[in-house]
Amino acid sequence: MLRKKTLHFTKGELYYLFPHGGHAYCASRFPRPESHFGAYQKNHFELVDVAIDAQAQVLNKYLARVVKPPSHFYQIDEEYIITEPRADGYYSVFFKHRPDCPPIGAYKRNDCFEYIVSLEESVTDTATIFEVGDIVEINGCITYQA
Q1: CB within 8 A of 2, min separation 6: which ones?
Q2: DSSP-assigned states of every residue in 55-101
Q3: pLDDT digits (tens, 9 = 90+) for 27-39
Q4: Rounded to the nearest 5°, which phi and psi values hold at 47?
Q5: Against a cut of 0.85, is the pTM above it?
Q6: Fewest beta carbons within 10 Å, which of 33, 70, 83, 119?
Q7: 59: three-class secondary structure by DSSP
Q8: Residue 103: CB partners within 8 Å, gap ≥ 6?
């Protein structure tokens, strides 16, 4: 029995398209080619230019502590980087040590994290300054003297 393949598109919805050979696109709801949900013939799409205000897309990031884990992955008092909520109410969560990498989650509940400080402030506050002469090499390992 042959089944008709159903397209997972909503008419009028905007999708990110990435070339896939000469006659197809990989379609995604996100601006990353790795997140595509399939390859489809070009005739299914009408290409439009959409001007996205880059300034509106930039969300402030904050160092935050887990107070009510949104899933079993998180533990209370762990620290992560989170964004301020987008227009749809969701905010993204990043590893504290990798804030420029893709997010590890996105949540709508606003009671999971408590804001500690903005990311810019946390970077300047946590820097360690060593004076010249404090750094010592012992057996091939670099260390510092207190």
Answers
A1: none
A2: HHH---EEEEEESS-SSTT--TT-EEEEEPP-TTS-EEEEETT-TTS
A3: 887 777 777 788 8
A4: -80, 130
A5: no
A6: 33
A7: coil
A8: 92, 93, 94
